[in-house]
Amino acid sequence: MASTEGLVPITRAYLASYYDKYPFPPLSDDVSRLSSEIRSISNDLLRQHPPNQGESMLIKEADGQPPHKIDENMWKNREYIEETIFLLDKPNWPEALKQQSSPSEVEYAVILGQLKDKLYSTLKFLESFQAKNSEHVFNTVMTYLPQDFRGTLLRQQRERSERNKQAEVDALVNSGGSIQERYALLWKQQMDRRRQLAQLGSATGVYKTLVKYLVGVPQVLLDFVRQINDDDGPMEEQRHRYGPPLYSLTSMILSIRLFLSLLWIRYGATKLKREQLALLEEAVEVYTREFERFLKFISEVFANAPFFISAEVAGALDASKNDDYKEITVPAGKTYEVLLSVDSVNSYIAWDFSLVQGKINMDIGFSLEFLSPSGDKTLMLPYRRYESDQGNFCTLMGGSYKLIWDNTYSTFFRKVVRYKVDCIPPVTEPVESD
Q1: Which domain, by its residues, includes 397?
Q2: Tens digit of pLDDT for each residue in 144-194?
Q3: Closest CA to 145 of 198, 214, 204
Q4: Where among 260, 285, 314 does a domain terminate?
């Protein structure tokens, strides 16, 4: 577990000073030029043949502003790239173009295939970027968690959650869901991940019992995951710095998609012209090059970005501490017991204790028993003497468990024990009500 002593979460002001070191080299002027030219020939198509209802919705989207959030723009680029790849796939070409009845259309077919391959490569690049970034954030959070079963539970919960999310996507695809519907679901799932991160930070929902019960989950970490995506939080500075070039690229790929959508439907009356194909070819080339350049740049920024900084740098020191320990005295020749009721198998019984030492270092016996409904006792954790211990036990059956601090071997010395114990139920997905 990495130490967070003396650290506080990054602030927007500090992130601004960090981003000063990473100015993004401006996009090529070709991005705005080609976006305008592609949109112009789309408007020409619309003047010849008014849009249908589906096209009107796409035009409205193209006329609007891209999403504000960086990650939502990433998902939108994925969606638009995949929609464009779909249009460039030969089975989805207009019937007249599929026939390749002229030498020019044979040439066009080769170029369209090359554009599809180029966009597919960029799609894979983007998917890899998103996966690595997600893993980086999760692993950073895990680095600052105690390296015990809490981390294991969080990983298990995340893996289970991701399997469930993938099953949702698979079910939608198998039922004939569209690309747009699939990405609407993927974005909803991304918002679910954010909600779960916020739950971890505020110790609510599925994470409530996991983070509240024992020493070791740093408050600075909980503060970080709770506030990182606030509307005016640290990530807003990222949107301010790097949003504009990304917004331009989002608009560009949407313009490319819109042009192909309009052209394919009108292909019987309007053939693909050589100059239009040349413009499309240049636009795809510039978009893929500039978008991949942006992804490489932002990957470096993310990889080096701090999550925590010293309190002195931030100008504030969080002195609050979470102290839920109890302190008891175990007289010489006596024991002290705590009884926990466990409702579910695979729950965790967890403890953390230490002796308040005087001039002489002392220890105390500790063991864990299971009590059956009939009163029979089963030793689950053998007796051993400790000065301090932090541990956990995964239950195999529901019932009562007794934690015992044993000072019967001592004739003269009482022991002062500072402890915290709890029973943690199995981590499961929260059930959302309509």
Answers
A1: 326-424
A2: 666 566 667 777 777 888 899 999 999 999 999 999 999 999 999 988 877
A3: 214
A4: 314
Task: Give domain status of residue 162, yes or no.
Answer: no
φ, ψ of residue 215 in degrees (nearest 5): -65, 150
> Is residue 174, in this structure, part of any structural domain at all?
no
Tell whether 230 and 343 lie within a shared domain.
Answer: no
At which of 314, 348, 372 does a domain end?
A: 314
What's the angle, vertex CA 106, arms to CA 103 and CA 109, rounded to 5? 150
Question: Which phi and psi (to 5°) does residue 406 adopt?
Answer: -115, 115
Say which residues have a Cβ less than 8 Å from residue 201's Cβ, sequence separation at least 6: 221, 222, 223, 224, 225, 226, 227
Give the long-range contacts of residues 109-114, CB within 8 A, separation 24 or more.
Answer: 111/277, 111/281, 112/88, 113/88
Rounded CA separation 86/116 (Å): 8
Are 357 and 387 in contact by the 8 Å Cβ rule? The answer is yes
Task: Identify whether residues 345 and 302 lie together within a single domain.
Answer: no
pLDDT in tens, 86-97: 999 999 999 988
Same structural domain, 261 and 306 = yes
Does the residue 255 lie in any domain?
yes
In angstroms, rounded to a whole number, what is the distance separating the alpha carbons of residues 179 and 192? 20
Q: pTM of the entire structure? A: 0.69
Place of tokens 């979470």: 322
* Three-class secondary structure of residue 116 per DSSP: helix
User: CB of 192 within 8 A of CB of 92?
Assistant: no
- Give the C-alpha distances (Å, rounded to integers) separating 263 from 48, 49, 259, 323, 334: 11, 10, 6, 66, 87
Measured CA to CA, the distance from residue 290 to residue 156 in angstroms comes to: 38
Tokens 């996507």 correspond to what residue? 169
Give residues with Cβ within 8 angstroms of 171, minimum separation 6.
none
- In whole angstroms, what is the distance from residue 277 CA to residue 60 CA? 24
Q: Where residue 410 sits, what CATH number does that domain have? A: 2.60.120.680
How far apart, in whole angstroms, are the C-alpha atoms of residue 14 and residue 138?
22
